[in-house]
Amino acid sequence: MGMEASTLVIRLVGVEKTLGGQPVLQGVNLEIPRGKVTTIIGKSGGGKSVLLKHMIGLLKPDRGQVLVDGTDITRLSAHDLNEVRKKFAMLFQGAALFDSLTVFENVAFPLREKTRLKETEIERKVNEILEAVGLTDMGHKFPAELSGGMRKRAGLARALVMGPEIILFDEPTTGLDPLLARTIHDLIIETQRRFGFTAIMVSHEIPEIFGISDYVAMLLDGVIVEMTTSEQFQHTRHPGVKEFINVGPGRRLGNRQGEPVI
Amino acid sequence: MVTTTVAGVGRKTLWLVGEMGRMMVFLISTVAWMARPPFRVMQLLKQIHFIGFKSLFVIVLTGTFTGMVLGLQGYYSLRKFGAEALLGSAVALSIIRELGPVLSALMVTGRAGSAMTAEIGIMRITEQIDALDTMAVNPMQYLIAPKVLASIIVMPMLCSIFDIIGIYGGYLVGVELLGVSSGAYTSSMESSVEWKDVYGGFLKAISFGVIISWVCTYKGYNTTMSAEGLGTATTEAVVLSSVLILIWDYFITSVLM
Predict the structure, then answer these.
(1) Is there a contact between A82 and B136 if contact means CB atoms under 8 Å apart?
(2) How many Cβ atoms from other residues are within 10 Å of residue A63's Cβ?
């Protein structure tokens, strides 16, 4: 895409990864612009989550570089990697809330672990964030007592609480009904506008993601075959991408222009 | 046919050697993280409560009946030589040297060890361990180290409770039921049990604490991403840790002799 280095927050260069004898990533080149919403789409089991986990150093590539603000995180020591991770937060597929802690304690967890804030200050901050994601007065509940949507909200609250520069979303709406999926999408966009973080999302919610993403990239057979603005992406000429976005769930019964599909 | 068998054996052996290496690295890294601040006192206390306090009932129950059956069996065997008076010594020595540490370790494996594997395994499957990592909190330090340390602290305590209760169990059967004199029971015990028997038992208990927490947390930490994987991990953890306890028991006994 040829963007200026300063507008890029993450750059992947020739990332290769084989898991369990299967080549998952086969030379991924990807540039993530700062302060925008970038969505990576692709087949289920096609390595999207694996790609996301490389960006935060949960997985190390067999070959290639992962540059975060110009630093190759694949070569960092555990200590330095933890420093870089302070820029990040991640919302996992199942929200990954700690079962043994209440919602409040979950959201307070990074503050208690990584800051020296006083307990009253932590309480104020957590309640503010819980309100922002629509979980006012839910702090005392345990994750097991929450619905899927509320768990995602709590996960988002925990991701937001440290004020990260970058938030990674691993299929944030999987397993939710379409209405709830839309509320979560709206919530992500709303908070992104409010807090200004870089959002990197992995999803296969087509066409919904076009409305909320600034940029869309497609991972196909272990490489990024297309990355462009959301607008241009929908008019792609790449046959593989075309095929993928035209059989998205929204197009099955007739497309937006109301033309019958068959 | 022959080549596939040989290849199969080779693969299995390579995997086994690799697994032993990975387990060793896991243990060393746990110990390294244990020594590094911040020290997780609350986590440690929680684990001591869970592994220790919550195992008390099982330990008391098994301790009582082990002592009682030893009283019964011991009386039966010793009477053949007219040596019922040595019952106290027989019960105390077998419990303090052998049965106390081994049986309490096996009970803790079944109760707390399997729960450790399941808890950590679920955290692995639901990505809670990854979540810790992304928040720059080391899971080895936050999750594993307190469990291992708690096991090391708690096992000798549970073992000594087992010992005392077991000896009383033997007393109950031998003295109250079968009529061995109370003085003979206690004095034979006092004269035959030495300090090295007691600390040998504690040494065993401590090393069993390491084995249980090491094997059970390792299996949970490396659970594969499925409910089936979790079941397998828990079974493997309990079986491997029980087997290792018995094998290690032989070697440590032969050294302590």
Answers:
(1) yes
(2) 14
